[in-house]
């Protein structure tokens, strides 16, 4: 299942997670990669939350497996 996070640009949570997996680590990166938060701005808070949750989960997974993600 996927959920639309940015209605203006038609961007889903899965697309945001894929961008983060591909190296996006800031809102600036997400704006550059997916153009989120550039029109009405209502999605910016949700994008930032998803970014933080995903990066935290990646960091926790890396620590659990002994792999460290370089920032």
Describe the structure.
This protein is mainly alpha-helical and 71 residues long. The protein is built from three helices and two strands. It has helices at residues 13-21, 27-34, 44-65; strands at 4-6, 11-12. The chain has a two-stranded antiparallel sheet. Strand 1 and strand 2 (11-12) form a beta hairpin. The protein is elongated, with a radius of gyration of 12 Å.
Distance between the termini: 29 Å
Q: What structural class do helix, strand and pairing data support?
A: mainly alpha
- The residue ranges in which pLDDT falls below 50 over 5 or more consecutive positions are none
Estimate the helix proportion, in percent: 40-55%
Order of helices and strands: EEHHH
Instruction: Tell me the Rg in angstroms.
Output: 12 Å
Q: Tally the helices.
A: 3
* Lateral strand order in the biggest sheet: 1-2
Amount of beta strand: 5-15%
Rounded mean pLDDT is: 91
Largest sheet: 2 strands, antiparallel
> What's the count of strands?
2
Shape: elongated
Write the layout of secondary structure elements.
Elements: E1 4-6, E2 11-12, H1 13-21, H2 27-34, H3 44-65
Antiparallel strand pairs: 1-2
Helix pairs in contact: 1-3
List keywords for this structure.
mainly alpha; 7% strand
């Amino acid at each position: 299942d996927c959920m639309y996070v940015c209605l203006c640009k038609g961007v889903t949570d899965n697309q945001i997670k894929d961008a983060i997996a591909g190296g996006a680590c800031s809102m600036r990166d997400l704006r550059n990669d997916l153009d989120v938060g550039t029109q009405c701005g209502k999605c910016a808070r949700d994008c930032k939350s998803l970014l933080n949750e995903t990066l935290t989960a990646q960091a926790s997974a890396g620590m659990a497996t002994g792999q460290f993600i370089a920032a």
